[in-house]
Amino acid sequence: MRNSNFVEVVVMPDILPQQQLLLELIIISGDIGVPDSEDSSIFFRTMNECKAKGWIKISTFGGGYNKLSITDYGRSLVNSGKSTPQKTA
User: Fold this and answer.
1) Is-contact 68 60, C-beta < 8 A?
2) Three-state secondary structure call for residue 73
3) Distance between CA atoms of 54 and 73, rounded to whole angstroms?
4) Is residue 31 part of a domain?
5) Domain-embedded: residue 88
6) If we measure between CA atoms, which residue out of 69, 44, 45, 66 comes closest to residue 56?
7) How far is CA 66 from CA 9, 41, 62, in A?
8) Based on the structure, what is the number of domains in the chain?
9) What is the mean pLDDT of residues 64-68?
């Protein structure tokens, strides 16, 4: 039985919804191929934000494509979305 004075909160360190979605997609799908010619889309901005934070790595795949892979840090970030009990007022 749960104590009604507590609520479960998912604690994630400064990860935006689109960043989490990209990380989860890579975890579910494995490596992802993306065009090596970037544009100003939300996808490429999100990809570069995740790379800058060390959550993914981008490597040359060939044929005009790059490969996105999740790093151990990125995987642990998504997997650490544990619920933490916090007392309500």
Assistant:
1) no
2) helix
3) 7
4) yes
5) no
6) 69
7) 36, 16, 7
8) 1
9) 96
C-alpha pair distances (Å), 68 with each of 17, 30, 83, 86: 18, 9, 28, 36
Cα 62 to Cα 35: distance, rounded to the nearest angstrom: 10
Residues 6+ away with beta carbon under 8 Å from 67: 31, 32, 33, 34, 58, 59, 60, 61
Look at residue 52 and tell me if it is in a domain: yes
Q: Residue 54 and residue 57: Cα distance in Å, rounded? A: 7
The percent of residues above 90 in pLDDT, for the chain, comes to: 65
CATH of the domain at 32: 1.10.10.10
Where helices occur in 1-89 by DSSP H, the ranges are 17-29, 42-52, 72-79
Q: What is the pLDDT of residue 40?
A: 85
Output the average pLDDT for the chain. 84
Range(s) of the domain holding residue 42: 13-80
